[in-house]
Amino acid sequence: MAEVDNPKHAYLKALLTRVQEIQGQLQKKLDKPTSNMESGKVWTSKTATAWKGTLGEKTGAYNSAVNALDDELSALLERTPAKCSQEEADAWYREQNSYNRTQRF
Fold first, then answer.
1. Domain locations in the chain as residue ranges
2. Are 30 and 59 in contact, with CB atoms under 8 Å apart?
3. Closest listed residue to residue 95, CA positions, set 9, 5, 7
4. Conformation bin of residue 6: beta by default, left when phi > 0, alpha when psi is -120 to 50
5. Buried-most residue among 40, 61, 73, 103 (CB within 10 A)?
6. pLDDT tens-place string over residues 33-47
């Protein structure tokens, strides 16, 4: 039986590429607000000083979470073979089409 390109592998690879593009955009989202707060020019008070420290911590946590977005997807891609039988490919397409027909928004 001939092996064909695994459509699930191709899908996951494209999805990973897209996730990584979005990660690059998201990682920079809090840079400007954080630097503005650190400058002391946008808000000054005891509360602002306390909040500035909290924002720095939240930015670090946010960036760590954004960086982790692709970890599970990368692991799944590594476990998914690049080739499969034609029957497996057909089954994957059927499953996707079935899901798309029954999905309600």
1. 3-102
2. yes
3. 7
4. beta
5. 73
6. 888 877 878 877 888
